[in-house]
Specification:
With 200 residues, this protein is mainly alpha-helical. Helix 1 (11-33) crosses helix 4. It has 9 helices and no strands. The chain folds into 2 domains: 1-58, Arc Repressor Mutant, subunit A (Orthogonal Bundle), CATH 1.10.10.60; 61-199, Tetracycline Repressor, domain 2 (Orthogonal Bundle). It has helices at residues 11-33, 40-47, 51-57, 61-84, 92-105, 108-116, 121-142, 150-175, 183-199.
């Protein structure tokens, strides 16, 4: 019977557990072999779950990748907000940059997802959406000062989008080993851009 409990675990809880296992296996495959290696078969093999359980939670491979990306970007934004909670405006920008860099440095799987996203349409679209989300967040909650007037606000938003998009590319290139510098250099460079965006 649908919805029946087994061993005190409800059907909904069993579905949620299998879904979490598939998400974790997707991250594991990305960490070992990259986004391109994520297939229904590879994820099912890693999770030791049959395909019927895959399709129970995700209609397609792209839906799984999108769910992993959603968790990452949403979790990162939550971490950034928590990082600046109660912190003076002038001190927020470096903390947000550090939260981004450290989140990626601490999990090679998510770093690889982040770096390889442009090559996969569904992930490229999600990263573009994240840039929109982070632009609004940084403009409203991170950069010091509040611009007055419609034109000043528009310029602040444009400068912030340039900052966020540039940060995205710089961090991705740094993680991929395509630019020189250590983590301190990356944070300092982005901080300088943040100061310019605040002035704008």
């Amino acid at each position: 019977m649908a919805g029946r409990s087994y061993g005190g675990v409800s059907a909904a809880d069993r579905v949620a557990t299998r879904r979490a296992s598939l998400l974790e296996s997707c991250r594991a495959v990305i960490g070992r072999e990259g986004v391109g290696a994520v297939t229904v078969e590879a994820v099912c093999a890693d999770s030791a779950l049959g395909k019927r359980y895959f399709y129970e939670s995700f209609p397609t491979r792209d839906d799984l990748l999108l769910a992993v990306a959603d968790e990452f970007y949403t979790g990162l934004l939550d971490r950034m907000r928590a990082t600046i909670d109660g912190v003076a405006e002038a001190e927020r920008a470096p903390l947000v940059v550090e939260a981004l860099v450290e989140s990626l440095r601490s999990d090679e799987r998510l770093a690889r997802l982040y770096v390889e996203s442009p090559a996969t349409p569904v992930l490229a679209a999600r990263r573009h959406l994240a840039i929109d989300e982070y632009t609004r967040f940084v403009a409203a909650e991170v950069l010091p000062g509040a611009p007055r007037g419609r034109r000043a606000k528009a310029r602040r938003l444009l400068a912030t989008r340039l900052l966020v998009a540039g940060t995205t590319e710089l961090v991705a290139d740094w993680l991929a080993g395509e630019v020189e510098g250590d983590v301190t250099d990356v944070i300092a460079a982005i901080g300088a851009l943040g100061a310019a965006a605040a002035i704008a």
